Structure formats: C-alpha cells, structure tokens
C-alpha cells in the first residue's frame, strides 16, 4: 500500500489530504481545507501574492492540526 500526503495550494484554498491506495483501490484517510474567501473578498478577487503568503502561514498549522506525521506517508504530491 502506498500512502500519499497530497497538498493543494494553486489558488485561494489551502488543502491537504492523506490518501492511501493499492491497485485500483484508493481511500482518503484524512482531508482538510482552509478557505481564503474572506481574505480576498475585499480585493474583489484572488490576489496571487496574498494567496501565496496565506498558504505559507496556513499549511504548517494544518499539518499540526491534522496529526499527520512523516511516518504516516510514503510520498508527497503537491
């Protein structure tokens, strides 16, 4: 079985998931999403630099809150 720590930070949401799979079977073990909607609302849309800085602030907190440890996954997909 392969366990993947998946990280998404391409726009205005910061997300992470722990996914495990073997063959055709895939299971989401844990999933967290942090929205930046309120942050960008005052600009009338997503500001990439603001979004990037928020990802940097948010991701370490999400990882801590998730309880996911390095021994829980084999690879990271970003």
What does this structure look like?
With 78 residues, the chain is of the alpha+beta class. A four-stranded mixed beta sheet has the order 3-2-1-4, with helices on one face. It has two helices and four strands; from the N terminus they run βββααβ.
User: For the report, how would you describe the main beta sheet?
Assistant: 4 strands, mixed
Task: Give the beta-strand count.
Answer: 4
Low-confidence stretches: none
Backbone shape: elongated
**Strand fraction:** 35-45%
Number of helices: 2
| Spatial ordering of strands, largest sheet | 3-2-1-4
Quaternary state of this entry equals single chain
The helix content, as a percent range, equals: 25-40%
Please state the structural category: alpha+beta
Provide mean pLDDT, rounded.
95
Order of SSEs: EEEHHE
Distance between the termini: 20 Å
